[in-house]
Amino acid sequence: MLDDFIWRALLGGLGVALAAGPLGAFVVWRRMAYFGDTLAHSGLLGVAVGVLAGVDEGLGVLAVCLATALLLVLLERSRRLATDTLLGILAHSALSLGLVGLALLETVRVDLSSYLFGDILAVGMRDLAWIWGGGLAALALLAAIWRPLLAATVHEELARVEGVPVFAVRLAFMLLIALVVAVAMKVVGVLLITSLLIIPAATARHFARSPERMAVLGSGFGALAVGGGLAASLHLDTPAGPSIVVCAALLFALAFAVPTRAR
Amino acid sequence: MSGEPLLRLHGVSLTRGRRTLLDGVDLDLAGGEIVTLIGPNGAGKSTLVKVALGLLAPDRGTVWRRPGVRIGYVPQRLVVAETLPLSVERFVTLGTPAPRAAVRAALAETGAAHVLRNPLHSVSGGELQRVMLARALLRRPALLVLDEPVQAVDVAGQYALYELIGAIRDRRGCGILLVSHDLHLVMAATDRVVCLNHHVCCAGHPDDVSRDPAYRALFGLEGVRHLAVYHHHHDHRHDLHGEVLHEDAEHDHAR
């Protein structure tokens, strides 16, 4: 029989995959991969902040991710710097600041690699509640803004003329990504979160003829990657987070071998 | 709704950094009227359109739109990510949810009913313009704003599109604000021309504008010769329709 920790790991991974599919589709459509990376990297700073403030580290991660998303929206609005330059500066300074911060907190011993690459096999009941609560909340919010967000993704100015509150919708979407990043950190770690957003969605594109289909298929491929990656990790004794990502990448490659008329 | 004022811009100025994009521009548009903005590339046409639509706020001047006016907008460029699977039908209803029959009718009105179920990525440049126009019409707009609607369309297709735009005005009585960089193309379809080069150089009936020294100075000799060349097409086209149009204007330009 499988041990409890494996069921918890699987449940946690599936929760993340479920939320990551539809959000990842928008990340792909809006070409925001680098944005996701930046938020994820700021998550490590969130761990340091959480430890420093003596609160739950998940809370610290969520707070810092949300703050970073807000900062990005505001900076992007002022248009002082090209967005990718801005993201490059923020992503790596946040990551480094997190590493430096954690090193300075001598009293606390933290397992750095679990934050960087995830520690899905250590997912507890508390984490499960956090993942499924956060993930389902993110999906519900995304469903609520789905239509205006899609319109703004296709053409922002056209959407504005047609009455979509584009700025509010974009802000909501960025906060949603921050939420999912905070939720997914335990499973794949800050360095690999974006892959779980992007790879399943990109795989789904191959088979989808509508945006909704691509979102749902993205969740499906994410779930397959979680299951396959965990199984591989158990049999081959490889790290779980990276195994999940490798599995997702294999699915992506395999998708191209399947003939399709979806294009 | 014909004749009712829809849009009134007064003394609109906009600067970005050191560049003056718009300088004291006035623009009026009423229902049932086609007004064309012309000017060279970089003259601020698209900027003015965005101010008129409320997408940009001017630094100075006033923008008035009839309260509650429904606007249909066809932007200059539409680039949808290759990764986003979207059918034409879905694209058309993104702004206004509508049953398939209504979508089909709007597409039929613009001559693009045959692409209803095709992926948006697969349609040609001319078809895409017609699809975007259908999306705008689905809103039953009182004001239609078309930013360079004939880009990426061949010459024959351009005339067909302008004919279509004229027909839409006649049928629906909506006001139309059109942007073009070629006066000769829009002459037949337009009621009033506003020639823009950051400020309004000249404005009025297309024939008058084409004779205006300010217009000629703006477009230069090349532009005028260009005009004569295209007029040849124009004559040809209207001969088929049994009309003689702008013959004196052509002499004027060839001189």
Summarize the structure.
The complex is a heterodimer of chains A (263) and B (255). With 263 residues, chain A is mainly α.
Order of helices and strands of chain B: EEEHEEHHHEHEHEEHHH
Overall mean pLDDT score of chain A? Answer: 89
Radius of gyration of chain A, in Å, reads 18 Å
What value does the Rg of chain B take, in angstroms? 18 Å
Total separate domains of chain A: 1
Question: Any overview of this molecule?
Answer:
The complex is a heterodimer of chains A (263) and B (255). By secondary structure, chain A is mostly helical. Chain A has one domain (4-255): ABC transporter involved in vitamin B12 uptake, BtuC, CATH 1.10.3470. In chain A, 80% of the residues lie in helices and 0% in strands. Chain A has 11 helices and no strands. In chain A, helix 1 packs across helix 9 (193-205), helix 2 (33-53) runs parallel beside helix 4 and helix 9 (193-205) packs parallel to helix 11. By secondary structure, chain B is an alpha/beta fold. Chain B folds into 2 domains: 5-70 and 141-205, Rossmann fold (3-Layer(aba) Sandwich); 77-140, no CATH class. Mean pLDDT of chain B is 82; it is low at 225-255. At the A-B interface, helix 6, helix 7 and helix 10 of A face loops of B.
